[in-house]
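Appendix B, record 7
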Amino acid sequence: MMITAAQGRSARTLLNWSLSRLASAASVSRSDIDDFELERCVPKAATRETIQRALEAAGVVFLHHDDVRLRAAASEVRAPRTPTYPRRRRRSKAKLGTGIAA
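Structure tokens (predicted):
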């Protein structure tokens, strides 16, 4: 499915990204993205795919009928992990060098 101009605008808004940020993430010129979003011209399929991949990598999911949404964060999908801490090794008194001879 190829994204539409409306989906591109909506996705960028959901991410709170500027034109410059998307242009940088997609390695596409700012004017190409602006022209696409304002429907001044239809970019090449490769350019649209590059923009779509950059937005998807940032967490956007493209749906049918010009809908978009943000992908659920991994922490929201899985149960939170209980933090584990490294176990402390106990040293024997002999290794501590107490200086007491037995």
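Remarks on this record: Residues 5-70 form a domain with the 434 Repressor (Amino-terminal Domain) fold (CATH 1.10.260.40). Residues 74-80 have pLDDT under 50 and may be disordered.
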